[in-house]
Design a protein that fits this description.
28% strand, three-stranded antiparallel beta sheet, globular, 7 helices, nine-stranded mixed beta sheet, Rossmann fold
Length: 269
């Protein structure tokens, strides 16, 4: 991802012009702070195909727009609490030609599909919900003095319950919830899913062979009661630090993180 200075209407901070997925997804994003990275791309790559997907904590829209680039969704609702990031998500939707397939909602995740909350997205309207919640627990990591950066990255692990409840309200029965988090939050993640989601698949993301996982991808089905399963890990780079062939294919948008997802038909509208 190569950055160059850019301009974006409606925001006062410096932005850059970047591209991911082998150049197929072009993004205007903050020059500093919350920027697109592997997490959002892996999140989209781990998702099954869907007619309507909701991206919670969408930021500049990377994960949700990546679904559209990959042909994995027909419509995407991008939910972001920060109005400046939401403005960039709207701009990125326009520049990538997805205006007719996206809705931008500025809202707190906790207010979704509740009385007094935003009109969209509606309860039980989604086949798929993605979540890239803040996952630096202040109890374990130093809090950033920058307010926007703190909101994007810092949250108690216990706040996962709020995100899981929102996903439960938004999903149709049998819909899929996909989230990315830190491996040390696994127990909290499973507790948040309990009673709402089952058949959870846990995919550890390793930086190199033999090294501990740095991220945990989780896919779970609404209303299922099947116990969780730990899937084989996904390795980002080889021992010398060069991208693995599997990671290269996923990060360029050629392959799904789980190959069987590529064959799944889109759900009916």
């Amino acid at each position: 991802m190569r950055s160059r200075p850019a301009e974006a209407p409606g925001v006062s901070f410096a932005v850059t012009d970047d591209a991911v997925l082998g150049g197929r997804l072009k993004l205007v994003q903050p020059a500093r702070g919350h920027r697109a990275g592997h997490d959002a791309i892996l999140l989209a790559a781990a998702a099954p195909k869907a007619a309507h997907a909701v991206d919670l904590g969408a930021g500049i829209g990377t994960a949700g727009l990546a679904l559209l680039v990959r042909g994995a969704a027909r419509r995407v609702t991008l939910v972001e609490i920060d109005k400046d990031l939401a403005a960039l998500a709207r701009a990125n939707s326009v520049r990538n030609g997805f205006v007719g397939q996206t809705a931008i909602v500025i809202a707190d995740v906790a207010s979704l599909a509740r009385r007094g909350g935003p009109h969209l997205p509606k309860a039980a309207s989604a086949d798929l919900v993605l979540a890239n919640p803040p996952f630096n627990d202040p109890a374990r990591r130093k809090t950033s003095p920058d307010a926007a950066r703190k909101r994007a990255y810092m949250a108690k692990d216990s706040d996962l319950e709020t995100w899981a409840r929102a996903a439960d309200r938004l999903l149709k029965p049998g819909g899929t919830f996909v989230l990315i988090h830190r491996p040390e939050a696994m127990a909290t993640i499973l507790a948040a899913l309990a009673g709402r989601f089952g058949a959870a698949e846990l995919v550890p993301i390793h930086p190199r062979p033999g090294e501990p996982a740095i991220r945990l991808l989780v896919r779970a089905k609404k209303g299922r009661r099947t116990p969780p399963m730990i899937q084989p890990g996904f390795v980002l780079a080889d021992a010398e630090g060069r991208p693995s062939l599997e990671a290269e294919a996923v990060l360029r948008g050629v392959a799904a993180l789980n190959p069987r997802l590529s064959a799944d038909p889109l759900h009916s509208m």
